[in-house]
């Protein structure tokens, strides 16, 4: 898992001129490549098992096409694709939806 570098970048308390801002952004881009904190890390299962993750880290498993979370000792699948659509798991109750008109919700 990647981590952000600790830097001594200046704090702006008022306004920052565009030239300074753009230079600092370029420095970060060069040092961190294309870091996007909103993007889920995508890895193959073989690479996933070699990396060290923190509890609660979420990845997209490219081998199994699943969204997974690490609890510190085991990977849990949060979402997986199926040939019939989508499937997901949760822990708050159960929900069954049938296309024949019957819907059962137990919470």
Question: Can you describe this structure?
Answer:
The protein is an alpha+beta fold. The protein has a domain at 38-106. Helix content is 18%, strand content 30%. The protein has helices at residues 18-32, 45-48; strands spanning 41-43, 58-61, 66-70, 75-82, 85-88, 94-97, 103-106. The strands form two sheets. A five-stranded mixed β-sheet has the order 1-2-3-4-5. The longest helix has 15 residues, at 18-32.
Q: What fraction of the residues are assigned to beta strands by DSSP? A: 25-35%
Which structural class should the secondary elements be placed in?
alpha+beta
Order of helices and strands: HEHEEEEEE
Task: Report the end-to-end length measured between terminal Cα atoms.
Answer: 36 Å
Mean pLDDT: 74
Number of strands: 7
Q: Treating each run of at least 4 consecutive H or I residues as one helix, how many helices?
A: 2
Main sheet: strands, sense, barrel: 5 strands, mixed
Stretches where pLDDT is under 50 for at least 5 consecutive residues are none
Q: Order of strands across the widest beta sheet?
A: 1-2-3-4-5
Radius of gyration: 21 Å
